[in-house]
């Protein structure tokens, strides 16, 4: 029987934690007996619990004192934090976990740092660190997003040459899957039904990414789009029906959710998995889908060795073909392709979903964007790389979407040594930031002191008018949707091209986008309490959530263009 993460953790802690606590407990029992104070069984149990809590409190307080002393030695101050009532802010942790499904994204600020310009510039060069790697190992292995040092350099150097201009501007794959997606959407709209846009674009990006990376399309679009939660008309697919590609996509999402919960809980996450490893079953599905593709590709590559032109670059070479020129180690191939598949699918799908929501709630921006598309590309022609590069409003819409709803809203970085950040205000002491800090790109990119008094508003013109030169040009590190520094995303331009291509095709076919909240399961709608809050949650008409990437349910209907 395979041991769970919780059992492994207890085994490790037995020597370093349990034995000392039990030893202290036995010492206290002897001292009480020597003093003539016998304890009942219940009293002994209470003493054991009290001993454990006392040791835990001493440990937590010692960490706090150590951090304060190290900060003082550097002439710095601790990052401001919200204080709870229990040791280690345990009350706040439990409250935060309980409110994960109802809070507005970023609403609980006790567990991450909100960056300023200097902090974001400094942290961009930090490593992932051992804590994050341990929580993500089951999903990401030693891939490029979950490694440091020589292993990270290996994965990055292997993938970098593939993302050249010829590859990222090769639009045949995008066009095929965009055409299929739009045809499925039109079918639903003709039936008077709304479409779950997050689901539709997630399938589009997964099918596109899998074909681009593996030369093997997972074909999730073939299963058809889901129906509104309360629709029971003819043609509804049973929830019990099985589709291998959809099972893979669902398992992939479940694994990301479980990994995110680990990061949310922090260093004690194994204790929450004492009886079950929540990544075990999803990763069985993921590996069962992916490994045969890799093994087949390796077998074909070995069989082709020595044949004429076998080593020559081909126009249709996939990332997997490219990687296999360097290694046939199946673990390296699986970790690398799974990491890049996650990025290629989730980040673009997230941004397209957020863009559709923002365009639906800002029809004036949609109208201007569509006018630019029709002027530059026309109503039917396939856009080219040069078309996309010249479309300023399109790029501004995507950037403003990524500013308000970055695809990766939170990130984890560690520094090898204690770090201080110089504040923007020269009269304040520097900030001391310990290793293992989670920082929020989402909150940084909404700060009014960095972006101006209208920072919470959706206004793509801020990337076109004087605000660009006032805020972003002198402080480029306030905008980090694709990270920065050594770990800047290799596929950044690929993502821009794919998102741009799909938006162009959508607005060539549809002249409006309208939200359809009545089509959505009530559990995914914004809670009524948000209207009494502050910030964007007061006006939000969808419920953004996150695992590794941001996602939401956004049901829309459109008006189809008659050509």
UniProtKB/TrEMBL annotation:
Keywords: Heme, Iron, Membrane, Metal-binding, Monooxygenase, Oxidoreductase, Transmembrane, Transmembrane helix
Binding site for heme: 489
InterPro entries registered for this protein in UniProt: Cyt_P450, Cyt_P450_CS, Cyt_P450_E_CYP52_fungi, Cyt_P450_E_grp-I, Cyt_P450_sf
UniProt xrefs under Gene3D superfamilies: Cytochrome P450 (1.10.630.10)
Keyword Nucleotide-binding included in the entry's annotation: no
Cofactor(s) this protein cannot do without: heme
Metal-binding recorded as keyword: yes
Transmembrane segments: 12-37, 43-61
One Gene Ontology term of the molecular function aspect: oxidoreductase activity, acting on paired donors, with incorporation or reduction of molecular oxygen
One Pfam family this sequence matches: p450
Family, similarity comment: Belongs to the cytochrome P450 family.
Name the record gives this protein: Cytochrome P450
Biological source species: Boletus reticuloceps
